[in-house]
Amino acid sequence: MKASETLSNNLQSVLVDLIELHVQGKQAHWSVVGKNFRDLHLQLDEIILDAREFSDEVAERMRALDAMPDGRSETVTKTTHLPKFPDGEVDTAETVTLITERLDATVDNIRKVHDEVDEEDPTSADILHAFIEKLEQYSWMVSAENRKPRKRAALKSTSRVS
């Protein structure tokens, strides 16, 4: 099978976001400071590893479909859907927010292109499904660091008359 221009462009769009997620995750890993530093530092390692592996999987899928992936830094910078990461040290709470935003932006783009990918190549769509599942799980786990517990519904006490 040879990828159409649309399929190639959609997979390229996912590729650059995964590469940028990897790079920004590494920057966050190096610049994070503050409370719960070690846990977040280690969690970022997991995200970075998966983003890197996912980008390689997309690029190799593109090659299998006779499409040419472009992971050059200038291409990634120009075409990513992820906002820039701030410079300098970043507090853990802000890092949690920043990484969650980037995970969500990556997933949003994958979901945006998914249906067109699925129409032409269900195999590539299956790969994207796995990415969505894992990245959404990371988003939930990372964002939980800054969340406050939801209030439980007030329990009404009822008296029983015997």
Describe this protein's structure.
- This protein has one domain (3-143): Ferritin, core subunit, four-helix bundle (Ferritin), CATH 1.20.1260.10.
- α1 (5-31) crosses α3 (73-79) and α2 runs antiparallel to α5 (122-143).
- A two-stranded parallel sheet has the order 1-2.
- The chain has 5 helices and 2 strands; from the N terminus they run αβααβαα.
- The mean pLDDT is 94.
- The protein has 162 residues and is mainly alpha-helical.
- It is 70% helix and 2% strand.
- The chain has helices at 5-31, 37-64, 73-79, 92-120, 122-143; strands at residues 32-33, 90-91.
- The termini are far apart.
- It is globular, with a radius of gyration of 20 Å.
How do you describe this structure in short?
Keywords: DNA-binding. By secondary structure, the chain is mostly helical.
**If you consult CATH, what is the topology?**
Ferritin
The CATH class is Mainly Alpha
- The first-to-last residue Cα distance is 76 Å
CATH architecture: Up-down Bundle
Give me the CATH superfamily: Ferritin, core subunit, four-helix bundle
What number of structural domains do the residues give? 1
**Bulk shape:** globular
- How many E-type strands? 2
Which ranges are low-confidence, i.e. pLDDT below 50, for 5 or more consecutive residues? none
Strand fraction equals: under 5%
Nearest-integer average pLDDT: 94
The sequence of SSEs as H and E is HEHHEHH
- The number of helical runs is 5
